[in-house]
TrEMBL record:
GO biological process, one term: regulation of pH
Domain of life (superkingdom): Eukaryota
Protein name listed in UniProt: Cation/H(+) antiporter 1-like
Domain spans labelled Cation/H+ exchanger transmembrane: 33-407
Subcellular location per the Swiss-Prot or TrEMBL entry: Membrane
Keywords of this entry: Ion transport, Membrane, Potassium, Potassium transport, Transmembrane, Transmembrane helix, Transport
Gene: LOC101494809
């Protein structure tokens, strides 16, 4: 009791170390926010402003009165303990957020990029370490000093790279993902080598290292079963309760402290525990929500600010020798990272502009550099620590500023090159942003996600965004505890019970299919909700946005309109989306099990893609090729042609006629665009002749006959895929738009979505992204 009292109320200290640390944190947050507001106007990211805030506050900490009052000698232990808690949490979060699938699928590329800068940095560090050893007049062995300098020059700060990628909005680009993956590989490797160097002469260091590995493995396995157990508890809650959250954090804390006590750094342990933590379910969702806010808004700003706070710039700038030493260190650090990265990028045929950008962003430094220098500083005079620390901090600021200018000047480097599906290869990753407004629409979205993830050769990444209408709060005279479902209320959350139902459906889907879906959320009024969708699609660099239709099917099979705001939002998304868009109309739930049953049933689903011609229909076929790889999908392409182009009006099916006859049918149509002919001939040769996909041709004279043909196949398929339009004044659809109800679906899509048109399958209407549309369509 007395010890606790003295910790907070020590009469001998004017300002208690715990209180002084709180004041330092407050100053860093206030000043960094001030710098951030100013520097953001010139495009500088948050971490640079936070480090500069620390640099400004740093000289004040060396004023005698302030140092004695707010930086007492006995406060060092407090800082070390707090920094331990902070880095434990944010490295766990980084591991939890990391896209391990991209790193593993591009392991050779990211490893070479990481090794290029690090190895050349080690060589440069070794060369300069002899000069620094003599210049700084150190008292430790040259061998140990050289190894520390090599680590300092080779190191890359993954927290700095991650925050720069987030602030400058290039994290979803290929260059951004290479940078983040390479930074994490470099940091983990440097920390592993540092642990080996520090503990090499310690007795039983091998057995202790094996013990750390066993502890990490044990915690990973315990978390796996603990997460499964916690995910099944309290299904009516959005997130875990605080005691459940603290249980896992306590396990992480205990294991990290054991590793630290054994003399090893716990950063690697925390990162891998987060990396291998189960990503699905309520437990991971809670950590991402609760930890993410506090770490990105409080912990990391203080972390970056304290990096600058420890520098004594005045002491360094008083001496020409120290300025020279710091300058040499900075130039060699930049030259080594830039040179090594450019060499590797040239070998990998990566553009020089991207190589330069990667070289500068991988030259950023952080906590581990201080760790390396601090360990050496235990045996070295203090001026050595300060000169190297100032060089590290100034190097990070300089590299960060250059990165921000490069990011603004080379926007094409980070632009989305896959705004449509048709130009992509089947082996390219397909990124999808699927949107839902309420739980009723989840089943059709998840069924579509399952179909698109059916092939291992065609990788896909899916984001599910819950769109929530922002409404004015209704005033109530009831107290908080008197409201219904007060336990479930959360002022930070919107969506009510819909959030719980969507989460439960998604968790069950992930458990059954092992498909990981990343969750997003947008809260806005209907007039501006489309902006959130389009901005998120642009940030995530997706190729297609999936939105649900504004109508839903009643028990009598008719389609009933929902909120008008949903329809207006969908129309705006179709106009302004930075990529292709698909509108899902769910049908077939009453008379015959619809396409949504693909999740619960192993039965084959017959899917038809209707091709009339034009870019939207080609996009529909490109999407269909992706889902045809699913083992539960039986795909048939139905092409509509004018009867005048053929001497007969019969169906030509794959396997029922000679290949030459079909190819003549495809290439001999004079009224069809030449691009469509070329596309279909290539498609037929690659997929139909091999028997992978069925192919049918239907010959019609006008829109009325097209409508009759659609009625004939209405009961044969559980899903119809069709392009929105882009066909011009096609004779195949003349007259079909005379009574159109939803023009945003196109003439064919509008017919298939009509309540008067009796079909038993769901409909997916696809619009291909075309740059020419930008600026031509208005609300």
């Amino acid at each position: 009791m007395d010890a606790t009292h003295n910790m907070f109320c020590n009469k001998e200290d004017l300002v208690n170390p715990l209180n002084s640390m709180g004041m330092q944190v407050s100053c860093i947050l206030v000043v960094s926010h001030f710098f951030n507001v100013i520097l953001r106007t010139v495009g500088q990211p948050g971490p640079i402003a936070q480090i500069l805030a620390g640099l400004v506050l740093g000289p004040m900490s060396h004023i005698k009165y302030i140092k004695e009052t707010f930086f007492p000698p006995n406060s060092q232990n407090y800082y070390e303990v707090v920094s331990f808690f902070c880095r434990m949490n944010f490295m766990f979060l980084f591991g939890l957020e990391m896209n391990i699938h991209y790193t593993m699928s591009h392991l050779r590329l990211v490893s070479l990029v990481a090794c290029g800068g690090a190895l050349v940095g080690a060589v440069f560090g070794l060369s300069v370490s002899f000069y620094l050893y003599e210049e700084l007049n150190t008292n430790i062995s040259m061998q140990y000093f050289c190894m520390i300098i090599m680590l300092v020059v080779s190191y890359t700060s993954s927290p700095m790279v991650i925050r720069l990628a987030a602030d400058l909005r290039f994290g979803a680009s290929d260059v951004g993902r290479i940078a983040v993956s390479a930074a994490l590989i470099t940091e983990m490797t440097c920390l592993l080598l540092f642990n080996v160097i520090v503990n090499w002469k310690v007795s039983h260091h091998i057995s202790t290292g094996i013990g750390c590995l066993l502890i990490t493995t044990l915690v990973i396995h315990i978390n796996k079963y603990l997460a499964i157990w916690l995910n099944g508890r309290h299904r009516n809650q959005k997130y875990l309760k605080a005691p459940e959250l603290l249980l896992i954090l306590f396990l992480l804390l205990s294991s990290s402290m054991i590793i630290e006590i054994w003399g090893y750094n716990s950063i690697i342990h925390c990162f891998f525990v987060g990396l291998l933590f189960p990503k699905e379910g309520k437990t991971a969702r809670t950590f991402l929500h609760k930890l993410g806010y506090s770490i990105y808004n409080f912990i990391l700003p203080v972390y970056f600010g304290y990096l600058g706070l420890q520098c004594d710039l005045i002491n360094v700038f008083k001496s020409l020798d120290k300025i020279t030493t710091a300058s040499i260190f900075i130039l060699l650090s930049i030259g080594s990272k830039l040179g090594g990265t450019l060499l590797v990028c040239r070998y990998l045929h990566i553009p020089t502009s991207e190589g330069i950008f990667l070289g500068f962003i991988l030259n950023t430094r952080g906590y581990s550099d201080i760790l390396f220098i601090s360990d050496a500083a235990k045996q070295v005079i203090s001026k050595t620590f300060n000169v190297l620390l100032v060089a590290v901090v100034l190097n990070t600021i300089l590299s960060g500023i250059i990165v921000s200018f490069l990011a603004r000047g080379e926007e094409k480097m980070f632009s989305n090159n896959h705004t449509a599906i048709e130009p992509q290869q089947m082996e390219d990753e397909l990124r999808i942003l699927a949107c839902v407004y309420d739980p009723r629409q989840v089943s059709s979205i998840l069924a579509t996600i399952l179909a698109i993830h059916g092939s291992r050769t065609s990788p896909s990444t899916t984001y599910l965004m819950h769109l929530i209408e922002l409404v004015k709060k209704i005033k109530s005279n009831l107290l908080y505890h008197e409201k219904e479902d007060a336990d479930l209320s959360d002022d930070d959350d919107y969506g009510g019970n819909d959030v719980v139902e969507i989460n439960n459906s998604l968790d069950a889907f992930t458990t059954d299919t092992k498909i990981l879906v990343h969750q997003k959320r947008a809260v806005s009024s209907f007039p501006s909700l489309y902006e959130d969708i389009c901005n998120e699609a642009e940030d995530l660099q997706v190729s297609i946005i999936l939105v649900p239709f504004h109508k839903h099917q009643r028990i009598d099979g008719k389609l009933e309109s929902g909120k008008e705001g949903i329809r207006i939002t969908n129309q705006k998304v179709l106009r302004h989306a930075p990529c292709s868009v698909g509108v899902i109309i769910e049908r077939g739930l009453i008379k015959v099990p619809g396409f949504s049953q693909i999740i619960a049933s192993e039965n084959m689903q017959n899917v038809a893609t209707l091709f009339f011609g034009g870019p939207d229909d080609r996009e529909a076929i490109a999407w269909s090729l992706r889902i045809s790889k699913c083992s539960r999908i039986n795909l048939t392409i139905i092409r509509f042609l004018l009867a005048s182009s053929s001497s007969h009006n019969e169906h030509i099916e794959s396997g029922q006629s000679d290949e030459k006859e079909i190819l003549m049918s495809l290439s001999g149509e004079e009224t069809v665009n030449e691009i469509d002919n070329t596309f279909m001939v290539d498609f037929y040769n690659r997929y139909v002749t091999s028997g992978q996909i069925g192919y049918v041709e239907k010959f019609v004279n006008n829109g009325a006959e097209t409508l009759e043909s659609l009625k004939e196949i209405g009961d044969m398929y559980s899903l119809f895929i069709v392009g929105k339009g882009g066909r011009g004044n096609s004779s195949l659809t003349i007259g079909m738009s005379d009574w159109e109800e939803c023009p945003e679906l196109g003439s064919v899509g509008d017919v298939l979505a009509s309540s008067d048109f009796d079909i038993h399958g769901s409909v997916l209407v696809i619009q291909q992204h075309r740059d020419a549309k930008k600026g031509l369509l208005h609300d």
